[in-house]
Design goal:
Elements lengths: L6 E5 L3 H13 L4 E5 L2 H10 L4 E5 L9 H10 L8 E6 L4 H8 L5 E4 L4 H17 L1 H8 L3 H13 L5 H15 L2 H14 L3 H13 L3 H14 L4 H13 L3 H14 L4 H13 L3 H15 L7 H16 L4 H18 L3 H4 L7 H15 L3 H18 L8 H11 L2 H14 L5 H33 L3 H14 L4 H17 L5 H15 L5 H14 L7
Parallel strand pairs: 1-2, 1-3, 3-4, 4-5
InterPro entries: CheY-like_superfamily, Sig_transdc_resp-reg_receiver, ST_Response_Regulator, TPR-like_helical_dom_sf, TPR_rpt
Protein name: Response regulator receiver protein
Keywords: Phosphoprotein, TPR repeat
Length: 547
């Protein structure tokens, strides 16, 4: 193969090997060779020019973005040509590492050491294959699924030597297009002709997508028996069992898949989902941490993953009956907050995020768990005021924990307003956030219904001038939501009306008025509540020394 007109990028954090590999590539005839030592520099190089070959070491330094994370990001951002060959090289032949790389579908995976002849042969074969399938890869890169499907069909009909690869790509394209029946029609004859693991796996996934879960499970189990290292089969089992709500078997399958191939963010997210559905809060915590650690150096980096991890610790504490264990979880929470406060990954997050405010929202949750309701309320309200000043739009990452505390404290109206704000923003929420919001709303539903009934009765009585009945209804509402600011203001307002109707104000009524005023005056309130409180002060001044 002639490399003289080919542009080559080599990536390795070890300068001696980088120099050696550059010499090998030059000896093969390449004149345009760029050598860098980390993934970020490699991505920057890919933005400047399109390479024909990228040869990248798997490990690019402790705590740094690795080779397959670089590959994934480069492809998703369209920084490589459809015919670019991406070869991963490594001295590490451990199973999880190899599988982690294979999942990103590099064109080749070479184990160090290798000779110039071996490298030349492998690169040549990969390049010829890329050129032959360029029409498919071009359409895929443009997200033109119908054209990619048509290109695959044309190549298969032409009798290409890469028919197997075309069939695999075609199955994936059918799934993407929602043409599951077409995928099954293509795969079934292939399975009958010559059973191959990839065909069985693809057919199992097709059956799953067609909601034929029993058929999918049967195929996947058969493949697991034949090859226990087929993590794709375990993935299919986990998802089928999850959809059938067979959580114990779903947990077993996903744990096996992670044991074989632990470096997939998507797989870890599925594990989180299964654990949440089965109320396995310890597993949610462990997998949420894995998601954050895996994602923070990849294109999947998202502050929501870190927030989900923090949230999972407090969820575990909340559902733990043992006081010592709950205390341990809370200590773990504070340790985690301190550990990640200065994490360099936060600086690379695109979303505007205030770590201090979020930390205080979590503190409000901890205060609530410890029974310090007023402290939780004060902390949360301070956070909401800071958010209103700091942000033009409410940060999605803050919402689940804020709404959780609001509902726990009985601030149902505030929680509803914030939920509507999120809905109106049109932001797409991740699955963990949606699950957390739904769980909080469902858990508070009965108490919220009781509160709303009593509060509604109180408002109706008040508007009709039946102040005693209104007062009694608001007191019942307060029993359901002891620190709700709105109902406290309503009680204060009713009390003022009742005292005004008395010829001589009763001592008991004045004392109740003073107690409620003291309860409210030091409280940090939302603007709407503060305005109402200020409007009552002129009447309060007749009976209470107003500050």
């Amino acid at each position: 193969m002639n490399y003289s007109d080919k542009r080559v990028l080599i990536v390795d954090d070890q300068r001696p090997f980088l120099t050696l590999l550059r010499g090998v590539i030059n000896n093969m005839g390449a004149q345009s060779v760029v050598a860098v030592q980390n993934a970020d520099s490699a991505l920057a190089a890919c933005k400047k020019e399109k390479f024909d070959f990228i040869i990248c070491d798997l490990h690019l330094g402790s705590g740094k973005k690795n080779g397959y994370q670089f590959l994934e990001e480069a492809r998703q951002k369209n920084l490589v040509k459809p015919e670019t060959v991406f070869a991963v090289v490594s001295a590490d032949s451990e199973r999880p590492v190899v599988f982690g790389s294979v999942e990103q579908h590099p064109d080749d995976y070479l184990i160090k050491p290798f000779s110039q002849a071996q490298l030349n042969l492998r690169l040549s074969k990969a390049y010829q294959k890329r050129l032959a399938l360029r029409s498919v890869y071009e359409a895929m890169q443009k997200n033109d699924t119908p054209e990619a499907i048509a290109a695959c069909r044309r190549l298969i009909m032409s009798g290409t030597r890469y028919a197997k690869t075309c069939c695999r790509l075609l199955a994936e394209l059918y799934w993407k297009a929602g043409e599951f029946t077409q995928a099954k029609h293509m795969l079934t004859p292939l399975l009958a002709q010559k059973p191959q693991p990839w065909v069985t796996i693809a057919l199992a996934k097709t059956e799953m997508l067609m909601t034929n879960y029993d058929a999918a499970i049967e195929l996947a189990i058969d493949m697991c028996h034949r090859n226990p290292l087929l993590y794709e089969a375990q993935d299919i089992l986990a998802q089928c069992y999850l959809l059938l709500r067979d959580y114990p078997n779903a947990l077993i399958a996903i744990e096996r898949a992670i044991e074989i191939a632990p470096y997939s963010v998507e797989r870890q997210l599925i594990a989180c989902k299964i654990a949440r559905e089965s109320h396995n809060y310890e597993m949610v915590k462990l997998r949420s941490l894995d998601v954050w650690e895996l994602s923070k150096k990849s294109i999947h980096r998202d502050i929501a993953h870190l927030c989900s991890y923090f949230r999972s610790i407090l969820d575990a504490a909340e559902h733990c009956e043992d006081k010592n264990m709950r205390s341990r979880y809370q200590h773990e929470m504070m340790t985690a907050i301190a550990r990640y406060r200065n994490d360099e990954a936060l600086a690379r997050i695109d979303e505007d995020f205030d770590y201090g405010i979020y930390e205080n929202i979590l503190t409000a949750r901890i205060n609530y768990l410890d029974g310090r309701l007023l402290e939780a309320k004060r902390t949360l309200n301070e956070c909401q005021q800071q958010i209103a000043i700091r942000f033009t739009e409410y940060p999605t990452a803050f919402a689940p924990d804020s709404i959780k505390v609001m509902l726990d404290l009985g601030e149902y109206d505030d929680a509803e307003r914030l939920s509507k704000t999120l809905t109106k923003s049109g932001k797409q929420l991740d699955e963990s956030t949606l699950f957390s919001l739904k769980s909080s709303v469902d858990k508070a539903a009965q108490r919220r219904h009781s509160y709303q009934n009593f509060n509604k009765q109180g408002i109706e009585h008040y508007n009709s001038g039946r102040y005693q009945e209104a007062y009694n209804a608001f007191l019942e509402a307060q029993k359901v939501a002891p620190v709700n600011t709105g109902v406290a203001l309503n009680i204060l307002q009713c009390n003022l009306k009742l005292i005004a109707q008395m010829k001589k104000p009763e001592t008991r009524a004045i004392n109740a008025l003073k107690q409620m005023y003291r309860h409210l005056k030091n409280m940090v309130m939302l603007e709407s509540h503060q305005q109402k409180f200020e409007s009552l002060k002129s009447d309060l001044g007749k009976y209470v020394e107003v500050a």
